[in-house]
Design goal:
The structure holds two protein chains of two kinds.
Chain A: E1 4-6, E2 14-18, E3 23-30, H1 35-51, E4 57-67, H2 69-87, E5 91-99, H3 103-113, E6 120-126
Parallel strand pairs in A: 3-4, 4-5, 5-6
Antiparallel strand pairs in A: 1-2, 2-3
Helix pairs in contact in A: 1-2
Chain B: H1 2-15, E1 18-26, H2 28-44, H3 49-69, E2 73-74, E3 84-94, E4 97-107, H4 111-123, H5 126-137, H6 150-158, E5 164-169, E6 174-182
Antiparallel strand pairs in B: 1-3, 2-3, 3-4, 4-6, 5-6
Helix pairs in contact in B: 2-3, 3-6, 5-6
Classes of the chains: A alpha/beta, B alpha+beta.
Chain lengths: ~130, ~180
């Protein structure tokens, strides 16, 4: 499967999906005009890729500065997808990277992460 | 007369603490442009980053609500790709508290549902809002296109006070709806 690399724009995040190394990144601001059109194809590829895995390691890094409520639904979907994959035997780590002075982004990370049972979830503060 | 009339409008806005006002058709491109202007203005005013994030976030949700749900739109059919939705947006700064207010027409027949949803949300504490937010994101609460949207819950969560909302009936078909959130 070809890797995905999409540069960030003012309203959409950088996407870096490396299917060989199983390292994934969504980074930046996320309030695209058409959220399903932006995320849909990328998430579908990830879904197909994860469906074929029952072992190995996956690392997913979220490094978001801002996301709107429509993007929040996509993030929730991704978390569910990663939890399913971890239930199937994959060693999944999710890193939620946030600017250390951004309490709101930290809380959102806690909220999204609190339902994960099989995924290893890390809150990673970063000096801005 | 021309200058006086326009200046009077500006003064009336100033008296209400409104520092930014847009009235007209809203599109996603206009959202981008206004968003940049609001960010720049707040940088100049040296607003702290938490306030800036709050104002910006509530602004985006408010404006996207108008773009998606205003009953005054061209073309009139909902769900068509390119739409112009009519609405009003103001950003205020009263006693050093920022507020973002949006207003648009809704269908009179939809107002009771919208009112009851907003009443419910405005009475919830942060903990209850968090639970509802996650339920909607997980699809556990069916998201009706009018009112139960996660956008309103997000606004209420980021607001520093309960959200204010109001309706004024224009005729049998249309009602004007306004929502204000303080940051």
């Amino acid at each position: 499967m070809d890797n995905i690399h999409i540069e960030a724009t003012e309203r959409s995040p950088e996407i870096n999906f490396n299917f060989q190394d199983n390292v994934y990144l969504i980074k930046g601001e996320s309030y695209p005009e058409d959220v399903p059109a932006f995320f849909g194809p990328n998430i579908n590829q990830l879904k197909d890729h994860l469906a074929d895995m029952d072992s190995g390691k996956v690392t997913f890094n979220f490094e978001l500065i801002y996301f709107n409520s429509t993007s929040a639904k996509v993030i929730m979907q991704l978390f569910d997808l990663l939890e399913d994959s971890a239930d199937n035997g994959v060693d999944v780590t999710v890193n939620w990277i946030f600017e250390s002075d951004d309490d709101n982004m930290e809380e959102l990370g806690e909220e999204f992460g609190e339902d994960l049972e099989s995924v290893k979830f890390n809150l990673v503060p970063q000096e801005s | 007369m021309l200058a006086t009339n326009l200046y009077n409008i500006r003064q009336a806005l100033n008296e209400q603490g409104i520092i930014f006002c847009y009235s007209g058709y809203m599109t996603e491109a206009i959202l981008s442009g206004i968003g940049q202007a609001i960010k720049q203005k707040m940088v100049i005013e040296e607003a702290d980053s938490k306030t800036m994030r709050g104002v910006f976030s509530i602004f985006v949700e408010q404006m996207q609500n108008v773009i998606r749900y205003s009953a005054e739109r061209i073309p009139e059919v909902t769900g068509s790709e390119s739409v112009l939705s009519f609405g009003l947006l103001t950003v205020g700064n009263e006693n050093s508290a920022y507020s973002v207010t949006c207003g648009n027409k809704v269908l009179t027949k939809d107002t009771e549902k919208l009112r009851s949803h907003l009443e419910k949300i405005s009475k919830m504490d942060q903990k209850e809002l968090k639970v509802l937010y996650k339920q909607i994101l997980k699809g556990e609460v069916p998201e009706g296109s009018k009112g139960a949207g996660v956008g309103f819950v997000d606004i209420a969560r980021k607001a520093s006070k309960p959200i204010e909302f109001d309706f004024t009936t224009l005729d049998d078909e249309y009602t004007f709806f306004a929502l204000k959130a303080f940051i």
